[in-house]
Amino acid sequence: MKDKAHNAAHQWKLLDEDGHVPAAPSYTVLLQHATDAQDLSRDVLRLTAEFARSPHHTTRDGSTVLKKLAWATTASSHAPLYFAETAEYSLSLLRSSNPAERQYLSNNMVHDHATGRAYLRRTSEALRDAAEELGAYLGFQRFLTQLTRQEIPPAPPPPRPGGRPR
C-alpha cells in the first residue's frame, strides 16, 4: 500500500511536458485518479481497523504504530475529494470559452490535483513510518521471546504414578 500511494503521487500527472494544463484534460483519466485514490483510502482504512482490533495496539509501540496508521487513514481519505474536484473542473474547462474563467479553472485544477498528490505522499510516508515502527517492535518481541526461552530452565519431569516424589 505504501508503494501504491507513493507511485500514484509521482505518476499521476496533470500537466504536460511543458508544465501547462492540457487544452482538453481527460475527465475519464482524472476521474480514474479519484477512483483509484478512493480504493487506496478504503484499503488503508481497513488496515488501520484491523490493527486497532489486534492486541498489538495496546502496547506503547503499538499505540505509536496506530497513531501513524490513523494519520495515513486521514490523509488517504482527503485525496479522492481533490482528484474528483480536479475531474469536475476539467469538465467545466471543456465547456468554457471565457479566457478569465478558463484561467481560473486551470489554476483550480492544478491546485487540487497537486493537493491530492500531496495527500498521497503523506499517506505513503505515514504507512512507511508505521511499517518501520511495527518492524522494530516485532523484531524486539522476537528477541525477547528468544531471550526468555534461553533463560528459563527446563521444567522437571512429572512425578511417576505410584512412586515417591523426587
Topology of helices and strands:
Layout: H1 2-11, H2 27-53, H3 60-95, H4 99-151
Can you count the helices? 4
The largest β sheet comes out as: none
What average pLDDT do the residues reach? 83
Q: What would you call the shape?
A: rod-shaped
- In N-to-C order, the SSE pattern is HHHH
Please give the alpha-carbon distance between the first and last residues.
59 Å
From the helix content, strand content and strand pairing, which structural class follows?
A: mainly alpha
The protein's oligomeric status is: single chain
Strand percent estimate: under 5%
Query: Mind telling me the C-alpha Rg?
Result: 26 Å
Helix content: over 70%
Give the tally of β-strands.
0
Contiguous uncertain segments of 5+ residues:
none
Describe the protein.
The protein is mainly α. It is 76% helix and 0% strand. The chain is built from four helices and no strands. It has helices at 2-11, 27-53, 60-95, 99-151. α1 (2-11) packs antiparallel against α4, α2 (27-53) runs antiparallel to α3 and α3 (60-95) packs antiparallel against α4. The protein is rod-shaped, with a radius of gyration of 26 Å. The model has no long low-confidence stretch (mean pLDDT 83).
Question: What's this, in brief?
Answer:
By secondary structure, this protein is mainly alpha-helical. Helices cover 76% and strands 0% of the residues.
What labels describe this entry?
single chain, 166 residues, mainly alpha, 4 helices, 76% helix, rod-shaped
